[in-house]
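Example: Delta-1-pyrroline-5-carboxylate synthase.
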Amino acid sequence: VRRWSNIPFITVPLSRAHGKSFAHRSELKHAKRIVVKLGSAVVTRGDECGLALGRLASIVEQVSMLQNQGREMMIVTSGAVAFGKQRLRHEILLSQSVRQALHSGQSQLKDMAIPVLEARACAAAGQSGLMALYEAMFTQYSICAAQILVTNLDFHDEQKRRNLNGTLHELLRMNIVPIINTNDAVVPPPEPNSDLQGVNVISVKDNDSLAARLAVEMKTDLLIVLSDVEGLFDSPPGSDDAKLIDIFYPGDQQSVTFGTKSRVGMGGMEAKVKAALWALQGGTSVVIANGTHPKISGHVITDIVEGKKVGTFFSEVKPAGPTVEQQGEMARAGGRTLAALQPEQRAEIIYRLADLLTDQRDEILLANKKDLEEAENKGRLALPLLKRLSLSTSKLNSLAIGLRQIAASSQDSVGRVIRRTRIAKDLDLEQVTVPIGVLLVIFESRPDCLPQVSALAIASGNGLLLKGGKEAAHSNQILHHLTQEALSIHGVKDAVQLVNTREEVEDLCRLDKLIDLIIPRGSSQLVRNIQKAAKGIPVMGHSEGICHVYVDTDASVEKVTRIIRDSKCEYPAACNALETLLIHRDLLRTPLFDQIIDMLRVEQVKIHAGPRFASYLTFSPSEVKSLRTEYGDLECCIEVVDSVQEAVEHIHKYGSSHTDVIITENEKTAEFFLQHVDSACVFWNASTRFSDGYRFGLGAEVGISTSRIHARGPVGIEGLLTTKWLLRGDNHVVSDFSEQGTMKYLHESLPLPQRNTN
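Written out as structure tokens, the predicted fold is:
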């Protein structure tokens, strides 16, 4: 524990032998010594006169936070010329205005011209002010900063190099942030032929090369280069086909076309890449990112250190397989090919996958056994999650049956005509079903989810990216292999991709150009995190499964305990399990109420009393902390209501719009409940556990949606389709339908083609 401004804080354990750069972004959180290079475009305003103070303050805050975590931060900064230009312009305007006021009067002030300012003079005038600004900002975080000005000659003189190295080490030892800049007031032109191939020499031509040189000299773990572009693109940013390169490897320069340099500064992207590769060769990891974007500049440095997918990461280690971006493109292309197949061919793929699940049962169960043993040995999974992780012969048989149902019901899912309209003579309009595009399904501890979701994606002609939890890695691997084997019979193996790289879920949620819909399958926390992280990509799912069962005064004694037991105890970890039991006040202290309590005790269900229920009891169970709780275990809340109307109001206030049930023999009361409860699934005298795609006859589901747009409830094939409009005409133009035109709109509904119901 260290202290900062009299406030204790915990430092991050950081230790690493320098010599080799980090292979993956996820390792950047272990960086101890970090250089942050601020380009001219980052620290200067758009008019190039003066500093972008808000941006600079945000950068200082992030650097201070990392410094106070126990890291050693250094800044290589531009900005002296811009700051000096602002000061000199002000001085010149002031002196000119005084002279002209004395000689010509105020009428001539508007004609004053600003002379061209020499950069070295601007740097000399701006360096002291820039440093004073940094010192004032760092003081707010109780951090001391020190200025160091260098030139290329300081690195060529061995004694000066040693002095510089010693000074920097001493400053870092004293927890001081060095602020380093080229001494632009006296800097000479770069020496010719000073960059030697294969030799640890790079001339300091600009702050990019200075940052790289310092990073290697100081054996830095990470160099962050901030500019005014998102990172390195494969062609100049702004061009039509430009794509951001997530990871750049040595030797990839040939695949990149460099554009012009930024509006200010000496180096362009080519100079940054050259400096980055030189630093990488010296054992320092490098990230080039945007330090000017208002939405990300406030956390860009900390995001990079946390390993998030920001900018371009330079790595010497190429992954064995494709990147997630490449997988997304493969899924897109494979999905389009899949959608173009005949319905019988897609069904044939799913039938083949169903057969493989039973034929390769022993191999699947062996892989699953490895996952279970590893999870138990590490003790990282709760019992409900271990149950979800477990596969069995009966589970595989049920999966195969469900897949065959999907295959049988998918014959006319894609390309089905749902509306036909005759707009005018020989002008017919059709609305037809089409795949959504590329789906990203993220699931935890549920290997059985993989073949289910794959079959639904295949049936609906969608490309699919799958991201499973590492606790099910062995099971997911073999199930994905079998899925691709089934897809191969019609040459569409790439349509379903399993993401095995170290991609964080939050990073996947940012791939809005590759992914059309995200479907999370897992804990409510996972769903909430994905909904928060998704940028421009719709998320289908539910964050919680707070399901209610209301027992009415007219409930059947025989039905009540059976339905409650099944809803709560059959599979308490499921999202469609009972969490809150609502009981009509008139049933308290009746034999029926006693039977319910006795059954729950026998099943070892822990009862939490709602506020009203607790008020009726002398010795009550533990009072519930919140009526909006998803237990996911053998626990439930019991609350008392006065009427069906009050039950509906309670569900609307505390429920999650998932599944809610009424138990009653009164048809009028039941219909009131069914019509007024605003949830995805509302049942009468049936267990909450029926809320499931397989039990609904959908074959399987990608999840249960509580959204009010597109799909709601268990989502099967229909929920993975959207529509497009097809208009067939014969030389039709809109002007023909004007008042002076020769044609009239008919808008006649036409009969739909006969559906294949076999």
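The domain at 25-92+117-188+205-314 is CATH 3.40.1160.10 (Carbamate kinase).
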